[in-house]
Amino acid sequence: MSRSITKAIGGSEYFDVKVESGQIILIPIKMQRADAVRTKLAALQLTEQDISDAVNWARKP
Predict the structure, then answer these.
(1) 22 confidence band (pLDDT: 50, 70, 90)
(2) What is the pLDDT of residues 45-59, one digit of tens each?
(3) What's the CA gap between 56 and 52, in Å, rounded?
(4) Residues with Cβ < 8 Å from 27, sequence gap 6 or more?
(5) For the chain, where are the alpha helices, taking DSSP H only?
């Protein structure tokens, strides 16, 4: 996608796509903070068990 288009609509990286009357319509999706965290965790390939282990380690006296 052209950077100038995404910049013009606020820099969105993700879009909902639908077709109406033969036109493709892209609707910017604003990621919530939790979505950003999930995306980062997925990129790091961390599992729920990894997170649980880290929390348990941090809670040790």
Answers:
(1) very high
(2) 988 899 899 999 999
(3) 6
(4) 15, 16, 17, 18
(5) 3-8, 33-44, 48-58
How far apart are the two ends of the chain, measured CA to CA in Å?
Answer: 50
Give helix then strand counts, H and E, for the chain.
Answer: 3, 2
Tokens 């052209």 correspond to 2
**Predicted pLDDT of residue 41:** 81
Instruction: Enter the tokens of residue 51.
Output: 């997170």
Segments making up each domain of the chain, as ranges: 1-30, 31-61
- The H or E element that residue 9 is part of is none
